Amino acid sequence: MTKPVITPNLGTLSQFRAPSMTATIMVCTHYRYAINQPSCGKRGGEALLLSLREAATGTDVAVEASCCFGRCTEGAVVRIAPGGTFYHGVIVDDAPNIVRAAKLFAAAIDVVE
């Protein structure tokens, strides 16, 4: 006598889909205090962090302060994570465009997954 094959009800594929991807904008706010050493903190990193948080309000984009990316001469530096673009020489006025780019990045990751 053979045993019956029991197939569990797996539902639809959409029930097992991962939640939508959320992009995180990481902003370097690191200060190097020597007079002749550039840093993102000296180039407006903290003001940029506040501006990005304001621009991201009401979206799925998270904004976090970050430690040094090692690109101090190119600051202020921002990165879209996970694995996204680095932006160099960013200023406060760039905040809406970076939030827009983060939303597009998250949507693109969502499509691939």
Tell me what you see in this structure.
There is one protein chain. With 113 residues, this protein is an alpha+beta fold. It has a single domain, classed as 3-Layer(aba) Sandwich (Glutaredoxin), CATH 3.40.30.10. Helices cover 27% and strands 14% of the residues. The protein has 2 helices and 4 strands, in the order E-H-E-E-E-H. The chain has helices at 45-56, 95-112; strands at 24-28, 62-66, 78-81, 86-87. A 4-stranded mixed β-sheet has the order 2-1-3-4, covered by helices on one side. Helix 1 (45-56) packs across helix 2 (95-112). The chain is elongated and about 40 Å long. It starts with 23 loop residues before the first strand and ends with a helix. Mean pLDDT is 81; it is low at 7-18.
Key features?
about 110 residues; 2 helices; alpha+beta; four-stranded mixed sheet; Glutaredoxin; about 25% helix
Strand order of the largest sheet: 2-1-3-4
Q: Could you tell me the radius of gyration in angstroms?
A: 21 Å
Low-confidence stretches: 7-18
Level of helix content?
A: 25-40%
* Beta-strand fraction estimate: 5-15%
CATH topology: Glutaredoxin
Going by CATH, what is the homologous superfamily?
Glutaredoxin
Biggest beta sheet attributes: 4 strands, mixed
Record field, number of beta strands: 4
What class, by secondary structure content? alpha+beta
Mean pLDDT: 81
Number of helices: 2
Number of domains: 1
Distance between the amino and carboxyl termini: 43 Å
Order of helices and strands: EHEEEH
What would you say the CATH architecture is? 3-Layer(aba) Sandwich
What would CATH call the class?
Answer: Alpha Beta
Q: What is the overall silhouette?
A: elongated
Oligomer state equals single chain
